[in-house]
Every structure is written in C-alpha cells, then in structure tokens.
Amino acid sequence: MSVNECQFSSSMVVSSMIGLLLSVYTTHVELQLELDNDYEALCDLNEGISCTKVFSSKYGKGFGIVHHILGEESIFNQPNGLFGIFFYALIALLCFVNDSNIARVQIYLCIVSNAMSLYLAYLLYFVLEDFCIVCVSTYVVNGINLYLSVKRYHALVAKECELERKMSDDKTKAKALCHMEDRAGFVNDSNIARVQIYLCIVSNAMSLYLAYLLYFVLEDFCIVCVSTYVVNGINLYLSVKRYHALVAKECELERKMSDDKTK
Q: Ranges for the Vitamin K epoxide reductase domain (predicted)?
C-alpha cells in the first residue's frame, strides 16, 4: 500500500468510525424516545437546538420516505441511525480492499450519502426549523468521506497503472507457477481471495445487525452469538491479509517471468 493510499484509507476509516458512533448515539436516543416521550438527550441544548425534536419526527425513521412506499409497519422503516450504522461500517470495511473498482463503488456510496445529507439538511432547516448538532456532524462526515474516497480512488488507480507497467504480459504462465507451488490443495488465487473478502464483509454487516437486535431489541447477552461475531471479525482480518499476501506472491512471480523473458 502506497503512503498516500494508506493515509487516505486510514483517514477514511477514522471518519467512518466517527460517523458510526454518531449513528449509534442517534439510534440510542431514538429508542429511548420510544420508551419515554419526555427523554432529553445530551444534544438538546434549547428549543432551537434539539436532537430529540428531529429524531422523534416522522423523518426520524426511514428518512421520511420508507413509510410512504412500504408503509409504517415495514421492516425497512427503521430509525435513520440504524441505516447509518450499516453504511459507515460498510464504508470503513471497504477501505481494506485495495481495488480501484471497489474504491469507485465507495465514491458512489458517498455521493448518495451526500445527496441524503442535502435532503435531510433541507428538512432540518426549512421544515423542522431546528438545528441538530448530531445531524450536522454526520453531514460533515459524509462530505469528508466523499473527498477522501475520491483521493483514495486516484491513488489506487495510479498504483495499479504502475504495477501493470511493470508486470509481464505472460500472466498465464505466472499463475501456473503459483498453483504449482500450492502444496496444500487450496485455491490460492487473488480473485477468489477477493470474493472471500466480500463474503466476510457481508457476514460482518449481518453481525452488526444481529448485535443491534441482541442489545437494543432483545436486551440480552448471548455468548454463542457474540462468539460468532468475533469469528466473523477475525475472518475478515485474515481474508484481507491473505489477499494481500497472494497479490504480492503473484506480482513477484510475474516480475520473475518478466526478467526471464528480458534475458
């Protein structure tokens, strides 16, 4: 990973974690409001600066859109903060996949989030006539993520172009050598490893959802459940490390093939 790419990825992970924490707090406040209508959050400073006023409005669930399309009782008509938890977790996880195509998807997701920020900011200022510190903070996070995602994409494209310039055209033979070195009978291919990462990302997203249900809805603690969440996290970390190791191995083999052809 190049220095610039590493900096952009790390900054984006930090920014997304801030967004995730804001979303967790938002979800917590919304759940408390359902239990107690008189609940006051820490971000309720006065009549004009109130988070609970926003979260308790019809726009606090499903962005004020889902209930019009799927109805009030739809499973998708959830607190906005819950959507934020999944979104920021996904953005952070994608930072560990060093692929320009994934980075491009990341940009599209950030564009959508900024479009939603504009929509929610309009509702906040013109419809609800309120100021929500937590809401505005998420808008700032979304803007930062969009900037960083674009910079990260360009860094990855530059890196991939440089690698392609150095690589040999004889990729088939290089991969054949790679498979010959596989003595354990496993599939040591970077493309398969990338699919493995995607599957692990999905499993971790499900872990977040189930953890939310476990803690906030069921208000319980399940050792077996939490253990599977930990396993999913470990698998994601290991799959990313394995992918990078395979890519490095393939690049090294291709470099050797290129040197042999030159000689």
A: 5-153
The SS3 call for residue 61 is strand
Q: What 3-state DSSP class applies to 159?
A: helix
Mean pLDDT score across all residues of the chain: 84
Q: What are phi and psi of 79, to 5 degrees?
A: -55, 145
Query: Measured between alpha carbons, how far is 32 from 42 in angstroms, rounded to an integer?
Result: 12
Q: What is the DSSP string of 195-253?
A: HHHHHHHHHHHHHHHHHHIIIIIS----HHHHHHHHHHHHHHHHHHHHHHHHHHHHHHH
Q: Which residues have a Cβ under 8 Å from the Cβ of 227 and sit 6 or more positions away?
A: none
Quickly state the pLDDT bin for 184 (edges 50, 70, 90). very low
Place of tokens 């988070």: 51
Q: What is the DSSP letter of 62?
A: G
Long-range contacts of 118-126 (CB under 8 A, 24+ apart): 119/63, 120/59, 120/63, 120/80, 123/59, 123/64, 124/54
Say what the pTM is.
Answer: 0.65
- Per-residue confidence (pLDDT) for residue 186, from 0 to 100: 60
